[in-house]
Amino acid sequence: MQQGGPSSPSCPSNSDCFPLSRLNTAKCGSETSAEQEKHEPTDLSRMRSIMIFYMCYLLCLGLGLACVVCVCVWNSQWRGGFAWDSKARQFNWHPVLMVTGLVVVYGIGAVLYRIPLTWGQNKLPWKLLHAALMLIALVLSIVGLCAVFDFHNANNIPNLYSLHSWIGIAATALFAIQWVVGVAGFLLPCSPISLRKLLKPVHVWMGGSILWLSIAACISGINEKLFFVLKGTANGTQPYSKLPPEALLGNSLGVLIVAFGLVVLKILSNHNWQRPDSRPEDLAYTPLLQEENE
């Protein structure tokens, strides 16, 4: 027991020694340095996590751009370019629009909420941007389907006979349903909070599932197209088994698409990169017209 003499400053209770902000640590006297030591590793870890996120995000953007460039070069240089004339050049719009819309734009829109610069800001503009990017992706994929169906019908080619076509139709149909339900559930003022809490995990799971279906549809379609056009005919075309330059480019496009999808799913699966007010413990959604400035 201490008797007499000035006592060192201390906190009246244990709860006072856990400051709400760094400015309050001075009240704890000698424990200030201990609290700072606790904060510094946390801050370093957080900064490291943010840096890794931006590295992954830049990689995602780079791979997405590479996918778009690669599919455009393939169909312009080896497949004869683009037109809307119910001939082969119209078909070339199909792979370009499906890869661009159903994979690249979709994936970039999916990770939009993970960008740390958007945290702590009004969520409404980012909700609208997310919905707009997804709508652009949906429109591009629908136009891509119209291009191939019109080409098939004009040339008496059967529709929906391959596994590639089944997966592609399923991905686009689920995407359309996902977008409509998402707008109705998360943007309309009349949607109740209980419905949004119920829809949130389903919306996230469906988003990742649609991306995987889109990737499967694209890489199976690339392989199917290469088998059709690289048969080693008398016009000098080398067979696919010889891996000519067109086959090498097509295979590289498939690898880029898979790599893009893996990076997107890595970003979506990391709990530390979720927007703080979107984590399960902070589910407090507000619909459109009720969004508050944060």
TrEMBL record:
Q: Key word Transmembrane helix present in the record?
A: yes
EC top class named in words: translocase
Subcellular localization, as worded in the UniProt entry: Late endosome membrane; Lysosome membrane
Organism, scientific name: Seriola dumerili
Instruction: Write the protein's name.
Output: Lysosomal membrane ascorbate-dependent ferrireductase CYB561A3
Q: What keywords would UniProt list here?
A: Electron transport, Endosome, Glycoprotein, Heme, Iron, Lysosome, Membrane, Metal-binding, Oxidoreductase, Translocase, Transmembrane, Transmembrane helix, Transport
Q: Which residues form the Cytochrome b561 domain?
A: 59-269
Predominantly, its location class is membrane
Name the catalysed reactions: Fe(3+)(out) + L-ascorbate(in) = monodehydro-L-ascorbate radical(in) + Fe(2+)(out) + H(+)
Function according to Swiss-Prot or TrEMBL:
Transmembrane reductase that uses ascorbate as an electron donor in the cytoplasm and transfers electrons across membranes to reduce iron cations Fe(3+) into Fe(2+) in the lumen of the late endosome and lysosome. Reduced iron can then be extruded from the late endosome and lysosome to the cytoplasm by divalent metal-specific transporters. It is therefore most probably involved in endosomal and lysosomal cellular iron homeostasis.
